[in-house]
Specification:
The chain is mainly beta and about 725 residues long. About 10% of the residues lie in helices and about 30% in strands. The strands form 11 sheets. It has a 5-stranded antiparallel sheet with strand order 11-15-14-13-12. A 5-stranded mixed sheet has the order 21-22-23-24-28, with no helix packed on it. Strand 8 and strand 9 form a beta hairpin.
């Protein structure tokens, strides 16, 4: 591979990562007959035509009338809203938001709104100098930097702060564990001391042998974990949901049910220059001895042999046990021929302080037949003892076929035992690309709702409970794309995924649409949705216009829901849950929509405080809006600001400021408020900021491509 090819491959890989965020929709629609404010533009068929139609596509039967009575019947067609009884959360979202002491998951709480009540944050800083040869940091040249820690070579997992630690997903570029030198590609979740950045322990996930179709090289762990007390949950690059002990083995306990977890220590390949070492090592083991090559490999992995080793043959010429002192610990290793390799392994235990302590594992690929596209990237959330997970089921490497159409896309499980209560495959065969969003859970009018952004561009709401007979109750679904939009490979179309995370605020939901950043800027949309309606609450409905003028509902299609030339139309939905929709706004009143007046595709989640909403799109625009529409139901846009670089992350609102990073490595710092249209600072972090700034304990935590910075005011 040439140097240019390598760079291109890295860029292609990078563009497949989506840091847990929120997305919305792509269209200009008119909403009528539902008591909701109208959107920006007229739909294909007018509201008057819809009201007069003899066919109502929003109703279960095509012959039903769109009368007020029919709409009312549809709205009460689900069972009464009864919340789960006896739900006990570790901490309520309000408690987490107000305390400022922790930020224990992506978005801080199950509501997804990155706006903690943290005070004492700096509005400016200088990262300091780094030695070009050693990467050593000169603290004296910095300002307002508490500490800096090296991460992997590519980092997309946002940090979370809880239990006195910082947890962040990355790759193995730092090689913290001797058994995995930095050239070994892994998904890594690392734990650091939040007071000084010292490395504590690492969970290591080896890459899937199926390669980039399921596990793209160098991307590491692309999600943020959830932490409650001394337990942590996250999704690995291998499509596993894992529960870990936040203390690792520092508490001198091996928490179960997973105990004595096997871990590869070293290997000798039967190939190239190592072939002779492999032959000698196998022969020595069969003779009850340990070759010098084996000793060297173990020493390099931190398991230096001290004294004699007792070797026992388990399977002739294939499997052996080794008892002795390795790395200063009396323990037993195993040696096994696996294909062309001789692999040495150990079982993890309390002596392995730098390793993660796994409590339980649930393999979604193995248990559910999931085929994740390029990576699994869900940042899980919880409601009481319920854990909600997006499986990342998606297309194959050609982006045309769906390898596992019957595999679930969304699931609910017991966070303590890993028991799966229900699964759902709602997008079905209509998945456009991958499914990299993260769930949100919020309670509306006493009903707990689990919000799932599907790979078909729909936002789904399920009752957040244990379901019935392995199935959830679907409360509503909302198509975040216009019905005439079209999916085209490579991002050339107008139909979008929802990659980001929905945000719940003031009884409403805010979500924007996007695609793989490699697909370009494209048309984007931001929605405000009323979650109290039921059924299909999309802004539009797809119908076939018959020769007699009647209309027949059309089942959702993957590539394009409505094809006008085939006699199909998009009609306004009288049951629409859209409160307002932002595609563009003529801010300067010149009758045209300039680049800065458009909402583009976004990978970013909104952040909201005091009814003021911020979001960055992939074109590099920061948009500031009111969460409330004007009297006519139109969105109120306060301003947009061009950062002149693509933005992958989401804003942080904290301590009277707004922080947002971009691909050029700049962090723009605004004073909070709709009147503050220009940043007061743009601070360069030297490498790209693909993640989202977070805050806790009067400290900003910002992960760049390869470092984590703890930023706080210096004492006098």
């Amino acid at each position: 591979m040439t140097k240019n090819d390598s760079k291109k491959s890295e860029w292609n890989a990078i563009t497949l990562i989506f840091v847990a965020t929120v997305c919305g929709s792509l269209t200009s629609l008119a909403l009528s007959g539902c008591g909701q404010p109208t959107s920006l533009h007229a739909s294909t068929v007018s509201a008057t035509e819809t009201a007069d139609s003899s066919c109502c596509p929003c109703c279960p039967k095509a012959t039903s009338c769109c009368s007020e009575e029919a709409s009312a019947e549809l709205l009460v067609s689900v069972k009464d809203d009864t919340p789960i009884s006896g739900v006990q959360e570790y901490k309520s979202p309000e408690e987490v938001m107000e305390s400022g002491d922790s930020w224990p998951q992506w978005g801080g709480t199950r509501l997804g709104n990155n706006a903690p009540n943290v005070t004492g944050l700096p509005a400016t800083w200088i990262i300091g100098d780094f030695d070009r040869q050693t990467d050593a940091w000169d603290k004296d040249s910095s300002e307002n930097i508490r500490w800096v820690t090296s991460l992997g070579s590519q980092t997309y997992g946002n940090p979370v702060i809880a239990d006195g630690k910082v947890f962040v997903g990355t790759n193995n570029g730092s090689g913290y564990l001797k058994r995995y030198p930095s050239e070994v590609d892994l998904g890594c979740l690392i734990a650091l001391d939040d007071s000084n950045g010292d490395f504590l322990w690492q969970h290591s996930s080896e890459k899937l042998i199926t390669g980039r179709v399921h596990d793209w090289p160098l991307q590491g762990i692309c999600c943020a974990p959830l932490v409650e007390g001394d337990r942590l949950w996250f999704v690995t690059n291998r499509g596993e949901v894992r529960c870990l002990d936040t203390n690792g083995f520092y508490d001198n306990e091996d928490d179960g049910p997973v105990v004595d977890e096997p871990a590869k220590v070293a290997e000798i390949m039967n190939a190239g220059d190592a072939a002779q070492a492999y032959t000698d090592s196998v022969a020595a083991l069969s003779a009850g001895k340990l070759s010098q090559a084996a000793k060297d490999a173990l020493s390099a992995a931190g398991e230096e042999v001290q004294g004699d080793v007792a070797i026992k043959t388990i399977t002739a010429d294939k499997v052996w046990s080794l008892a002795g002192n390795f790395g200063g610990v009396d323990r037993e290793l195993s040696a096994k021929i696996v294909g062309p390799r001789l692999v040495f392994s150990k079982t993890l235990g309390t002596q392995d302080k730098r390793e993660a302590d796994t409590v339980w594992v649930y393999d979604m690929m193995d248990e559910l037949g999931v085929s994740q596209h390029n990576m699994a990237a869900c940042s899980v959330t919880s409601y009481g003892d319920l854990l909600f997970v997006n499986t990342s089921n998606g297309m194959d490497e050609a982006h045309i076929n769906l390898p596992a159409p019957d595999a679930p896309s969304f699931l609910c499980m017991d966070k303590n035992t890993a028991e799966v209560y229900w699964t759902d495959r709602s997008p079905g065969v209509n998945i456009l690309h991958g499914q990299w969003s993260s769930p949100t859970v919020a309670v509306f009018d006493g009903t707990p709702q689990a919000l799932f952004a599907g790979g078909d561009g729909y936002l789904y709401s399920f009752r957040a409970d244990k379901g019935s007979e392995g199935k959830p109750e679907l409360l509503w679904k909302f198509d975040c794309n216009p019905k005439e939009s079209k999916w085209v490979l490579g991002g050339k179309g107008t139909r979008n995924n929802i990659i980001a995370t929905p945000v719940a605020y003031d009884g409403k939901i805010f979500v924007a649409v996007g695609q793989d950043p490699e697909h370009g800027e494209g048309e984007g949309h931001l929605w405000c949705i009323d979650p109290t309606r039921r059924g299909d609450v999309s802004p539009e409905l797809a119908v076939k216009i018959q020769d007699d003028g009647s209309r027949t509902p059309i089942e959702h299609r993957r590539l394009q829901a409505v094809i006008p030339e085939n006699g199909e139309a998009a009609v306004a939905n009288p049951n629409s849950a859209a409160v307002w929709h932002y595609r563009f706004a003529d801010q300067n009143g010149d009758g045209e929509y300039d680049f800065e007046e458009e909402m583009h595709r976004s990978c970013g989640t909104v952040a909201i405080k005091d009814d003021v909403l911020y979001i960055a799109d992939f074109a590099g625009l920061v948009h500031c809006l009111s969460t409330k529409p004007d009297e006519s139901g139109m969105p109120i846009v306060h301003f947009t600001y061009d950062m002149f670089a693509q933005s992958w992350g989401s804003p942080l609102i904290a301590d009277g400021h707004v922080y947002i990073g971009d691909e050029d490595g700049d962090v723009a710092v605004f004073e909070f408020g709709p009147e503050n249209k220009e940043p007061i600072e743009e601070i360069n972090m030297e490498t790209s900021v693909y993640s989202t700034p977070v805050a806790a304990k009067s400290t900003l935590f910002i992960s760049t491509k390869d470092k984590l910075f703890a930023i706080g005011k210096q004492s006098d």
